[in-house]
Known about the structure:
By secondary structure, the chain is of the alpha+beta class. It has helices at about 20-35, 50-65, 80-95; strands spanning about 10, 20, 40, 50, 70, 75. Helix content is about 45%, strand content about 10%. Strand 1 (about 10) and strand 2 form a beta hairpin. It is flat. The model has no long low-confidence stretch (mean pLDDT about 80).
Amino acid sequence: MKDIVEIKQFMCEKCGSQFCGIGTLKKHLESHSRIKQKEFNCDTCGKLFLDKGKLKKHQYIHLNVKQFECFVCGKDFYERSKMKRHEKTHKLKDKVIA
């Protein structure tokens, strides 16, 4: 089986980051216009975050804490949004098979 690859067609003109959707790009652009500086840094890798919640979410990667599991195949994910996107691939495969 082949994984579905998302094409990142929207690019931030300020930093070069690429995104799959225009909404995600717009949300990202807000981070460039914030007056507040990044205040929270990861003790493991040094990455900086705007708020403590995002830092905590990031730290799950280093702790290998995968809280979310695909109900179809059991694959684990760090983020709920990534799991939900993955679960949609099962629905697409069902449509192709049917």
